[in-house]
Amino acid sequence: MTASSTNELLLAAFGSDICISDPEEIVRWSSDSWGLCAGMAAAVMRPRNVQEVSEIVRFCSAQGIAIVPQGGNTGLVGGAIPDPSGKQVILSLSRMDNVRELDPINYTITVDAGCILAHIQETAAEVNRLFPLSFGAEGCCQIGGVLSTNAGGNSVLRYGNTRDLVLGIEVVLADGTIWNGLRKLRKDNTGYDLKHLFIGAEGTLGIITAAVLKLFPKPRSNATAIVALSDLEAAPRLLALTRDITTDALSAFELIPRRLVELAAQHTDRANCVPPVEADWFVLIELTNSDMNEALTERLQTVLEAAHDSAHIIDASIAANLSQRDQMWSLRDEVAETQIKNGAVIYFDVSVPVSSVPAFIQQATAKLKELDPQIDINAFGHVGDGNIHFNLLQTHDQPADLFLIRKNEYERIVYNVVYELGGSFSAEHGIGSEKMDALINFKSPIELSLMKAVRAAISGTTFNPGKLIPSE
Ligand SMILES: Cc1cc2nc3c(=O)[nH]c(=O)nc-3n(C[C@H](O)[C@H](O)[C@H](O)COP(=O)(O)OP(=O)(O)OC[C@H]3O[C@@H](n4cnc5c(N)ncnc54)[C@H](O)[C@@H]3O)c2cc1C
Question: Does the chain have fewer CB atoms within 10 Å around its N or its C terminus?
């Protein structure tokens, strides 16, 4: 079928309220906001409820039209972007944004897949509950996309990944069947836990249309600090010390390099919250719980004194009020925008055992410098989870295209170090289309063949062909 006949067929079947068929508008939906990748869809379908999703899927399956599910389109590996053929159809969940049920007694919230993450956090907060998932894209990403990428973020250390925060889901399968798995149960041992197949599946197995999410008591206080480390090796040691002293109060432990502080000073006013000392590495530490603020701040001070005595840290700034805390977090969360102001970026999102983070950064840096002594590295992120965003920045004397063309060379070096240390080449962002080569090179053949078997059994190639699983 040609792109224009697919477009006409869908428009005739579903009407212009659901089907966007104007090529100029379709272009807007067919690339990501970071300009990392672009394709072209035949049409964009915008259903209003699960029944309409089911009808669209049934129709497309029968016609052999491939569907690309799209949430907030903030994913960083091209998972929600159609291929360039102009034959695939984007199915956007953005109109399905209702909170279906808020149950503060059961500590659950049931939401449509198109609900924006920040809206879910705010709705939970209104009844004194916390939905803990939080990261830079929370104002735009949708919970269906968040589940499909099994997103992590800033509080995984305390509350786990998305996978740990989901009790039930509703999914439209490849033949249009609606599976209502919206259970609010914390215990259910009645066979395979099927929801976990769809979480992290990057839209290859079905369309997630709703989810039941776990809520938690809302912390009443927090204590936040940015700490200057004596060296990089101190990071995992300080993490262990902080956990020993604060037990369950530690909710975030984020690595901030000197390079990020320099970028922030150059492009924003956010660098003021960093202790004014000569240090190459900093961490943002946050404790949260239901203690009084003073008590929590005292616990943080105890950690910092012990860390100073053990020579892990040189200095620290503790946020004195909410606005200082916000400034510390915006230094961390707005790093993506800050980096882009500097020029082109090659992104790595890797994980290694927490204790191996210093070895990873040092070995990868040394090997990259052998290849390119001028290489500009910004390595930051969720060090408490062993997850580092190890980004390479364009240098001023190097045109963007000459820098980006070396991506494969850089990748080979970084991924080999990750592999040697028993790590993962994609800790949070998934595979999409962008990390397919790494998947083929580093995923074990048995895992790849199990993934293919699961897909063949559940959905064939209806959803997101060319993503997550290599084409035959
Ligand atoms: C500034 C910034 C910060 C970020 N920080 C983090 C971070 O700290 N941790 C982290 O893990 N990630 C982070 N991310 C990436 C993260 O994966 C996405 O932001 C988010 O999880 C994707 O949600 P989305 O709604 O935008 O999904 P999209 O980008 O629209 O889609 C992502 C994938 O899910 C599929 N999909 C979307 N909706 C559905 C659905 N309803 N059913 C089935 N499949 C679907 C798509 O086909 C695609 O494969 C960040 C991104 C940005 C831009």
Answer: C
- The model's pLDDT over 110-121, given as tens digits with 9 standing for 90+, comes to 999 999 999 999
CATH 3.30.465.10 is right for the domain spanning 343-442: no
Separation of alpha carbons 470 and 472, rounded Å = 6
Has domain 221-335 been given CATH number 3.20.20.140?
no
**Burial of 75 per CB tally in 10 Å (0-12, 13-18, 19+):** buried
Pocket mutation for ligand 1, best pick of 148, 169, 468 (most atoms within 8 Å of C-beta):
148
Could you confirm whether domain 99-217 is CATH 2.60.40.1180? no
Cα separation, 234 vs 227, whole angstroms: 11
Q: Which residues contact 203 (CB under 8 A, 6 or more apart)?
A: 68, 69, 79, 80, 148, 463, 464, 467
- Residue 291, Cα to own-chain centre: how many angstroms? 30
Q: What pLDDT, in 10s, does the model give residues 202-256?
A: 999 999 999 999 999 999 899 999 999 999 999 999 999 999 999 889 999 999 9
CATH number of 3-92: 3.30.43.10
Q: Kindly give the number of the ligand 1 atom that is closest to the alpha carbon of 68.
A: 47
Domain boundaries, the chain: 3-92, 99-217, 221-335, 343-442
pLDDT attached to residue 162: 98
Q: 3-92 and 221-335: same fold?
A: no
The two structure tokens encoding residue 163: 């996978």
Do 91 and 174 touch, CB atoms closer than 8 A? no
Pocket test for ligand 1, best of 74, 165, 385 (most atoms within 8 A of CB): 74
